Amino acid sequence: MSSFQAWFSTESIRFRIRALKARFRDQKAEFEVIRRHVRPRDIVCDIGAHKGSFVYWLSCWCRDGRVVAFEPQPDLAHRLENVCRAIKLCNVKVEAKAVYSHSGDHDLYVPIGQQPGASLHNNALKAESFTILTVPLLALDDYFDEKDAITLLKIDVEGAEFGVLRGANRILRQHAPLLVFECENRHLEPGNVRDVFSYLEGLGYEGSFVCRDRVLPIAEFDAAVHQRQDGEWFWKSKDYCNNFIFRKPAQ
Predict the structure, then answer these.
(1) Which of 55, 111, 194, 231 is 20 to 30 A off residue 37, Cα-Cα?
(2) What pLDDT band is residue 163 in, cutting at 50, 70 and 90?
(3) 53: three-class secondary structure by DSSP
């Protein structure tokens, strides 16, 4: 397939449409923060890359650096790797692995018909039926060398974010990457989002959250309001907030 054919293939077009929707409609505030933060030679991670809506922009903005996309669902990882290769996103490396607090193997629970909801924690699932895949785990502190200055961790892992962060403790202390992540009480039972916030604050991070495309101080976040679980589709409410941005203040 020629470069022209690859660029205009159905898979490539869908990939770029998803990227456009994410940046200019669904995660406008998050992308603006990321765009201002990353530089061309940076090393960045997309943890829970799914179909790659963040990968395209990260590849563009870190054109002389590295983008490592972690996606544990083998079929999604394979498709993402193929489309990145086809449209020559040469700085992207796709890892078909789950990121967590330690390396090894673990069950991944995938709701039938709901691939975005896959989780390492079966208590995070609300689906009545799901398939179970055994996937390789890795901790970011094990994966990256100490000299690899990671500047961004984007995390979307359906309840496993605390594990991801604990497995990156050295990186968080040494390189202070910007953190852009989803976090919800409904996925963290019996814990809650404040456990994650406290852990990061203990490492010197300051937080904010996204509400209606605005970035607000974490002190204004109230789970009883911003993650209120009323109604069948409560997480689709415009006032439901599950995206957070944490960074260390400039020294």
Answers:
(1) 194
(2) very high
(3) coil
- The C-alpha angle 204, 205, 207, rounded to 5 degrees, equals 150
Instruction: Compute how many other C-beta atoms are within 10 angstroms of the C-beta atom of residue 221.
Output: 19
Report the C-alpha gap between 83 and 7 in whole angstroms: 9
**Band of pLDDT at residue 125, cut at 50, 70 and 90:** low
For the chain, domains (ranges, CATH) are: 3-247 (3.40.50.150)
Q: Model's pTM, two decimal places? A: 0.93
- If phi over 0 gives left and psi between -120 and 50 gives alpha, with beta otherwise, what is residue 65? beta
Edge-first strand order for the sheet with 98-99 is: 98-99, 130-138, 104-111
Cβ atoms 20, 236 nearer than 8 A: no
**pLDDT above 70 as % of the chain:** 94
DSSP-derived secondary structure for 141-198? HHHS-TT--EEEEEE--TT-HHHHHHTTHHHHHHH--EEEEE--HHHHTTS-HHHHHH
pLDDT of the residue at 118: 84
The answer to whether residues 152 and 130 touch, using CB atoms and an 8 Å cutoff, is no
Q: How far apart are the first and last CA of the chain?
A: 50
Within 8 A by CB and 6+ apart from 242, the residues are 182, 183, 184, 227, 235
pLDDT tens sequence across 87-124 = 999 999 999 999 999 999 998 988 876 556 788 877 55
Please tell me the distance from the alpha carbon of residue 121 to that of residue 6, in angstroms, as a whole number.
37
